[in-house]
Fold:
Amino acid sequence: MWIDKLSNKELLQMHKFVMTEDTKKIKATKRKNGVAVTAYENWPYEDGTPEYVPTEYVYTDYDYTNYDTSDPNHWKTVGKYRQFMTKRFGAEYVQAMVKEMLNVDIKEVLEWIRK
Structure:
């Protein structure tokens, strides 16, 4: 699994990039189907005083689940997640993602595009 290859430092960087820059720390636990992350995100009080609230996520190779909030912009944040993973792992990640999500080889997709 791709997500398993990220260090805790990289998981924190990824979470800050995808969700919110103002994340103090994370706790990560590997699972059979991904990595469970408790992220301490700043959900400030009305007066602006920071409050770092634990928020639960499970990251899989190509998507994530947020258990604490509804995310109407999930399609945007999952795009940022895949962007982070692509920058980290390169063409192999993209090839595996296309195979998993579309059940086709990337070479076939490129042939279709060229036609």
